[in-house]
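Lesson 9: reading folded outputs for more than one chain in a single document. The general rule is that every protein is listed as its sequence immediately followed by its C-alpha cells, and records are never interleaved. Here is the first one.
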Amino acid sequence: MRTATFSDFIRRPTQVLADAAGEDIRLTRRGEEDLVVSNATRHDGQIGVLDQLSRLIAASLDERTADRISDSMSDVLPWIDFLPDEHRRSFVGEYLRTARACASIGDFRKLSIEIEAWKESATAYAAGIDPAGADLNLLDEPVAVQRPVLT
C-alpha cells in the first residue's frame, strides 16, 4: 500500500492517485486517523472473498474443527489459552459468526469489539476469576468512594 500525506492529496489529487494506480493509498493526517483510498471494485472483491471464506469455515464448524481452529488461533491470539475448552469453542463460533456478519456489511468494527470482550474474559480467567460464576454485585446507581491511600 502506498502512503501519501493528506496535504499532498489536497494539493495534487490527480498526481497522488496516478502514482498509486492499481493499489490502495494510505493518506496520513497529522493528529487524525489515517484514511485509505481504495478502488471500489478491489474493495468489494476483498469483502466478497472474506464473506465467502467466513461462510465456508462456519459451514464446516463442529466441535473438533472448533478445537483445531482455536489451537491455530492461539498462535495469533495467545490469550485464548486462558479460556476453558468449552469457552474456546464458543469464542471460535462467535468469532466466525461475527466475522461473517461483518463481511456481509463490509464493516469489521463489531468483530474488534467481540475479540476485545473475549480477551477481557481470558484476562479474568488468568487472574483466577470465573467471569460467569463470579460473585459480582452490580450497583443500580454509582456510589462515590474515597481515593485509596498508599501506605
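And here is the second record, again sequence then C-alpha cells.
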Amino acid sequence: MADVLDDSAHIEEEQEEFTRVTQRTKKPRSKIQSTFEHSDLQDSFTTQDLNKLFTELRAMRTEMSNFTKAVMELKTTMAVHIERIDSFDLRLQKIEDKVNEPNRPNQGDLEATICRLELELRDRDQDALINDIEISGIPEVKNEGTFHIIKSVATKLGIDLDERDIVSAERVGAVRAHVEGQAVPRPRNIAVRLVRRAKRDEILREARVRRGCTTSNMDIPGEAKRFYVNEHLTKFNSQLFYKAREFAKNKNWRYVWTRNGTMYARYEHGSERRIRTPT
C-alpha cells in the first residue's frame, strides 16, 4: 500500500515539472497580435473600407481648407466695410460739429445773404446793357434793314447818328406769326447797342422830349405807327417794370420810370421809391 502511494506522488511531481517547463519554453504573444486576435476590427475593416475612410478624410481636409479661405475673405471684406463706416462716422461728426457751431449763421442770415447776392447779380446783368436802348412799335417787314431803321428813328428825334455809332441792332424774341381772322400781332422790339453811353443818353433824352413820335416820313411801309424808345432792360427787370406799372395803376400811383436800368415809383408828391423785387 505504501508503494502505491509513493508512485502516485511521484507521478504528480513529474506532471508539475512538465507544466513548468512547458510554460517556460512557450513563446509569448505580442501585445498587438493579442489585440487583433481579440478585437472585432480584424473582422470588420477591410482594405476597401480603409481607402474609403482616407478619401473622406481628404475631402474633409479640402472642405476645411475652403472654409478657412472663405473666412479669411469674409474678414477682409468686413475690414473694408468697417473702414468705410468709420469714414462715414467721421464725416457725419464733422457735419454735426459744424451744425452745432455757436457762431454758425442762422437760416434768416443765410436767406438774407442769398437775396443780397441775387440782387447783385441782377444789377450786374443790367449794367451790361448800359449802352443799349430798345425801340418798340416799329412795324416789322421781311428783309428789313435794322441799321436803316435806327438811323431813321434818330433823325426823327433830331439826332445825327452814324452807322459807326451802332454796335448792333436786331429784333429780339420769337417771331409772332399772323393768324388769319385775328388782329395783326405786335411787332418785335429792336435792341440797339451803341458805342458810347453819351449817345445812348442823348437818344433817351430826346425821346422823352418828343413823346408821341410816329413812323410817318420814315420810309417804313404801312400806316404811321407810334414808336417808343426806352432803356433796354433784362428779362427779369422788364417783367418787374410791367408789374410795377400794373401795381401803380391799381393803387393810383402816378409815376413809374426807369433810370440807368433801375426802376423807381412815386405816388404824386413825395420821395421816390426804388423797386428791386416784386414784393
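What the second record shows: The chain has a mean pLDDT of 81.
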